[in-house]
Amino acid sequence: MDRLHETLALLTSQLRPDANHKEDLVFLKDVFSERSLGYLMKIHEKLRQYERLSPTPILHSASSLAEDVAEELQSGPMSGDEKELLQLLAAPHLKAVLSVHDTVAQKNFDPVLPPLPDELDDELEEESVKIVRLVKNKEPLGATIRRDESTGAVVVARIMRGGAADRSGLVHVGDELREVNGIPVIHKRPDEISQILSQSQGSITLKIIPAIKEEDRLKESKVYMRALFDYVPTEDKATPCQEAGLPFSRGDILQVVSQDDPTCVT
């Protein structure tokens, strides 16, 4: 903070001759005088110290060690200090801190996915079935589905660029959807399936039959288009996923990355 105040004094001396900067100086003084800024600078300095020191955990099981110590204390008569230590080790807040310490020390940051099923359904044995697992939070899946009029199958209609499905690289337009989190969807309506997908958080397991594409379709040439109008996806009621829409302005150059859907390009 001392350096910030020195900087402010320097700016004041530089800008004082110009009366037009009076409001700017008042604003800077108010900002530098905020207590929250001081806290942020202290946090920043602590983080920089952490980066320089690069501390490593002494052990990866502090919670287990605390439990062992508590059990050892209870095995015999305790002094006043030992009783106080036992009470401290039993405190919920300390247990939570030790649990977080172990999680960080073990670098256990990724969600644990459930194991793959041992056997596939008999009706799918002769088909090329693919089990796909996606991890998403509150974001939309980034894919739409429809009922194929000729076969009656539920297929992927569109893949939104940048969505969870697109980032995975495992779901493609034309893939037939059979199950969502173990729930058969063959006889469900597309809106019912969409509701299941939107309500699912964390790990989503899809059982799909990959679409058969012609080789030449996989080698589509790059296509660019110039926008002739402004587009705001949040105002487009026809888009299936407004959150995944790409806003653009008149005159922007857009690259077409998929032409699978004749009614929509992405």
UniProtKB/TrEMBL annotation:
Keyword flag Repeat: yes
InterPro entries: L27_C, L27_dom, L27_dom_sf, MAGUK, PDZ, PDZ_sf, SH3-like_dom_sf, SH3_domain
GO cellular component: adherens junction; membrane
PROSITE patterns tied to this protein: L27 (PS51022), PDZ (PS50106), SH3 (PS50002)
Domain PDZ: 131-212
Residue ranges annotated for the SH3 domain, each copy included: 220-266
Cell compartments where the protein resides: Cell junction, Adherens junction; Membrane
UniProt keyword annotation of tRNA processing present: no
Domain L27, first and last residues per copy: 1-54, 55-112
Keywords for the protein's UniProt record, in alphabetical order: Cell junction, Membrane, Repeat, SH3 domain
A matching Pfam family: L27
Family classification: Belongs to the MAGUK family.
Protein's name according to its UniProt entry: MAGUK p55 subfamily member 3-like
Organism in which the protein naturally occurs: Scleropages formosus (Asian bonytongue)
